[in-house]
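User: Hello, can you help with two protein structures?

Assistant: Certainly.
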Amino acid sequence: MARGLPEKLNGAVLLISHDRAFLDNVTTRTVEISLGKAYDYKVPYSRYVVLRAERRAQQMA
């Protein structure tokens, strides 16, 4: 977990980083806000990237 943050946090954290390994290590959920809609992914960051690509491909079909 990130320095200074507890292992379990009862709340939300807005986290901005380009370090994908770091994001995978500290996230268990990603909420994407796109075109006025919120998409809730309860998975680590790298899995979110895959699921987002699949969702977008389905939307384009």
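That covers the first. Now for the second protein you mentioned:
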Amino acid sequence: MIILLCIPILANAQEQQENGSGRLSIDGKPVSIVVDNVFGSVNVLGSTANEVTYSVKKKLAADSKSALQKGWDEITMEVIKRNDSILFFLKAPYICSKWTGCSKGNNWDGGPEGYTFQFDVMLEVPSYADLHVSTVDRGSITIEKVSGELAAFHVNGEVTLRDAVEVTEARSVNGNVTVYYNSVPRSDGLFSSINGKLRVFTAEGLNARVAAKSMNGQFYTSFAHELIPPKLTKTVQKNGSKTSFRLDESYGIQIGKNGPLLNFETLNGDIFLRKL
């Protein structure tokens, strides 16, 4: 069941916004939630309720009333419940994505004409939900108190995960990535940014293999560790005439015994692995 409470507000002749909200029942079943945003923040909070509640703020700005109306009519945030998944994605004539059945994949054919848009998404989800969240600009990604699998992707902004249990990926291109585990990680995780710092905090008693790579930064940790020798990667040309070996450029350490692989990659930023 979806309940929409839409309150359009016309700030002036070139701006308009609307607040929409809804609720979806889960009935205690496993659920995977996808938020595929472009411009705007995504904030998610885990709860004990067996439902997903959401609030979406839609904001448009345009050069003229006609462009504003055109944009208002053609760009929407779709909310779809499909089997064990709930999808939040943008729909417009110029947006091509797998959610809309477009065969070209994630791509834009042209773009918004004469207007800009932003969707700020706030979710409250069952704490056991799996999340796959992405956005591009004009906001941040924050996920808190969700124990399911987490994957978060940003381009121009920060990614922050709190009370996390299982982080498969946390990425940004131009922004910091910060992860607070509620205990110690029990599964492999990838943390990356091109122009940003990577900060991961876990409880004491960590057992993990750590690989860290930064061209213009340093790796810091407060955990006792042992160095792992870099690996040689063997490559053989297709015709078998030449065999070469490449030295792995990542910095490897072992904390405790065995454990998951925590992989850190950044170009221009420092890497921190610290105790809570």
